[in-house]
Amino acid sequence: MVSAASLHRRLLGGLSLLLLLTCTLLLLQSWYSAQRSADRAYDRLLASAAQVMSDHVSWRNDRLWFDVPASALNMLAPHGDERVFYALIDREGHLVSGNAALVALIQDLPATGSFQTSSATFNGLSLRVGALGARLTGWHNRAPYALLVAHTLEARHAMTWQLFRDSSLRLAGIVALAVAGLLMTLRLALRPLKQLRRRLKARTAHDLSPIHVRVPRELEELLAALNALLARQRQVRIHEQRFIGDASHQLRTPLAGIAASAELALRSQDSAHWHQALQEIQAGTHRATRLAEQLLSLTRLHSPEAPLTRQPVALATLARETLVRFLPVADKNGIDLGLAEPCPELSVAGNRWQLEEALSNLIDNALRYARSRVTVGIDAANSVIHVEDDGPGINNGEQDDVLRPFHRCQEQGPGSGLGLAIADGVARAHGGTIVMHHLPGGGFMIGLHLPGEMT
Amino acid sequence: MLKPCRYCYRLMLVAWSVITLATTASAAEPSLSIEGNLRFQGQGNETLNIQGVVEADILRPVLEAFHQRYPQITLHYHDASRGERPQPATVPPNVDLLMSSAMAQQYQLANAGYAQPLGSGVINPDWPESARWRDELIGLTHEPLVMVYRRELADIAPPPEDHAGLLALLNQKNTALTGRVATYDPARSPTGFMAVAQDVARSTEAWALFDAMGEADTQLLDSTADMLEGLIEGRYLIGYNLMGSYARRAVQDHPDLAMQVPTDYALALQRLALIPMNAPHPEMARRFLTFITSRQGQQIMTTRTPLGSPLLAFEGATSPDDSLEPIQLTPGLLALIDPLKREALLDRWQTIFDTRSIAAPNIVEGTVE
């Protein structure tokens, strides 16, 4: 048997997948936010550097003049190894001073008083460019100009990594905690199941008492079903014990008769007595044999190792053939045994041997209690094969009990008490039931209802 | 400004090819020196072209050691220090390793992306961080800018020990010193410009000194070598802002000269090396850098050349000096060579020195270009 994936693994798998998904999303988010933070921080630095530079722009000798401060350039390289570029642009967009033609990297010259940043590529270098729009603050000359500053991205990358690493470490810590918690919770949650298993394993084969253990609500149903099964098993066990007891008792009666007859014959010297004893012994042996046969049939019927093989069985033929076997007995007892006419052709899927056995038992039983007449008939409409007799029948209150083995209406009756039990077993094996009722004009009908007919 | 630049550039190229032709003609010689150029013929077909602003003779022991270590490499060294011109904004072609003490220009080239990464494992891992930038620039030497004077200056006045002392001397003994002071011409020498710009950036008081120098009709020269030549010949009494490496060697050879490291502050230059993006043999350049930054290479450099080692300077091998102010490798260097600023500085310089006679003929004499 291939077992389904373990509960533990299923739960762990599902939750881990969820955790993984969450982690991935959080990592992505933290990467972008780290990038944003780094850009914001260093864009502010670009702005400050440009501001410092703008303090050194003046008007001298009829032109823009720029005394670039080394400190502002150093500011642009917070990490020490950035490449640094700057340019002072006049209002026409011409380079006044600087170390790179940065003006080609920006779309428009910035408006006065504004600072804007953008990313650009310059000679194959990835740069962040800041553009400050400003104007001279002299009394006579208020010419606008633009200061462009740029640096490579080493510091930004370093800061992004730093922030990302920090948040990743935090996340890793949280994940470790979550996984530990998850494993612990799973173990705790599945512990009742483990306990139940252990209790079941520890039981002996004969212990069929109900299991008393506190379980969570989800397991209550399972436990109830288990206990119900155990209760049924107990019932079955009781039945079996009683059956064995009854069977022994039944077998002992004819054997005791045989033993008594033999003893009487042994004491007598009269050959007539011997003959009578032999006849009694023969009758006793017959009864014992018949009982043993019936016990065998019942055992075979209940044996789970012999599955029912079904074939189409023509009930009319079956009825006729079985009936013929009982004719001698019926004649001896002066009972009119016959087949009800018309006899419809009905065919059911079933086991011929079993059906014959069941019918034989019904006829045998009817012959014992009938006064003068036993009729076998087939009711095609209800799919019933039945036996009618003019005996007293079975009281309505007893009809369920008679189907149990060794139950007899009269304690000292002629039968073994197994016939109806066998018939009932066959009916159940075929998915049917035993039907019985008193007939309106006196007499009693008992029959096998067999669904699943094959016409 | 562009046109003359391109012109001199072309001139340089022509000169370069002439030299290359000349040297290959006598390839049998193991080494050959023509006008500041050195060539070591290698046995293999690997080549390394170095352009520097150190005189070939000064760097010779290092180059020889490298040649001995890697005899298969043909080594060209071109000294561009004589008749230095303002560097163009790009690197010269066919150069595998560019070395210069014009730190701002070198920084600008690397900043603009004209240098390729040196690569991991190339530079000695002990090399100080302050002498590296971005794995593109490396400071190979560490040398202060110093004053050199002839000992007979003591006959006139006590020799100056710091910048204020020099200023006082110039103001007091103006007539005696007229025409006998020498310094770099910032308009023609990038290294000289670096020195002046750093002096001014450090304190505007420097202008007082330059004013006094102008009053004394200070001679403006292209290189430390020229200044030392004049000092040795006795034409000048005082030289200001000389490269310490050259000065130390000259003072050793000429007892009538004395070197003074200014006690208030002495700017320490680094000779920055970079491998140009379009270098034809970058692997050879890396091999050279590995060699020169190794302990052995630095040992040779400090013992057999006057150049100072950044590696050993911080280990106390040469006496550490409180007044030394190393010029940092920061973007602030870019401010020194801002076109407007440069123009303004040179303008002011020019107004101070406009009385002087422009470029004496002997200055251009040794120019190779």
Automatic annotation (TrEMBL), chain A:
Domain HAMP, chain residue ranges per copy: 187-238
Location (main, coarse): membrane
Superkingdom assignment: Bacteria
GO molecular function: kinase activity
Family matches, as Pfam families: 2CSK_N, HATPase_c, HisKA
Enzymatic reactions: ATP + protein L-histidine = ADP + protein N-phospho-L-histidine
Subcellular location: Membrane
Matching SUPFAM superfamilies: ATPase domain of HSP90 chaperone/DNA topoisomerase II/histidine kinase, Homodimeric domain of signal transducing histidine kinase
Name of the protein this chain belongs to: histidine kinase
Organism this protein belongs to: Kushneria pakistanensis
Automatic annotation (TrEMBL), chain B:
Signal peptide start and end residues: 1-27
Cited InterPro entries: SBP
Keywords from the named record: Signal
The keyword Signal belongs to this UniProt entry's keyword annotation: yes
Annotated protein name in UniProt: Iron ABC transporter
Organism: Kushneria pakistanensis
